[in-house]
Amino acid sequence: MCTDYTDLNKACPKDAYPLPNIDRLVDGAAGHKFLTFLDAYSGYNQIRMHPRDEDKTTFVTESANYCYQVMPFGLKNAGATYQRIMDKIFSDQIEKNIEVYVDDMVVKSADIPSHVADLAEAFNALRRHQMRLNPDKCVFGISEGKFLGFMLSSRGIEANPDKCQTIIDMKSPSNLKEVQKIAG
């Protein structure tokens, strides 16, 4: 279901809660020997709407009117709300053994015993707040992987092969106009 919340978004004040700096998150996660990438299952839909705000999400169908009891996509402040909740859930772990950007998380550790303990701490925090993960998008205990579009490994931040392949596959320019197009 996709609902247009343009009018509601215009009427709502902007939530100034900041999203984390991506460079800081990537730098904080790079250089660790063991990484686990976690993804929340239908992240926004795990956040309960405040009962007095449910009516604001009402939408009309041919058969009835409905409203969301969980946070739908498309609300102006959904990202800030979600990040605030994740910062609360992982307040004891952020920058220590986990980095979180909205519904993307990376648990980072120096060795296997630490990684097991760090994962247990993350799972306990998620369980306490009844947050679920998408097992199809979670990858456990690896030495390198993608986080927020960057390749992370124990060596640091590396070139993302997907982005490199785009450049490798690019056709070489054959005239001045094509060179100018590439150069901008």
From TrEMBL:
It comes from the Eukaryota. Coiled coil: none annotated. SUPFAM superfamilies: DNA/RNA polymerases (SSF56672). PROSITE patterns: RT_POL. Pfam families: RVT_1 (PF00078). Residues 1-152 form the Reverse transcriptase domain. InterPro entries: DNA/RNA_pol_sf, Rev_trsase/Diguanyl_cyclase, RNA-dir_DNA_polymerase, RT_dom. This is Transposon Ty3-I Gag-Pol polyprotein. It comes from Cajanus cajan (Pigeon pea).
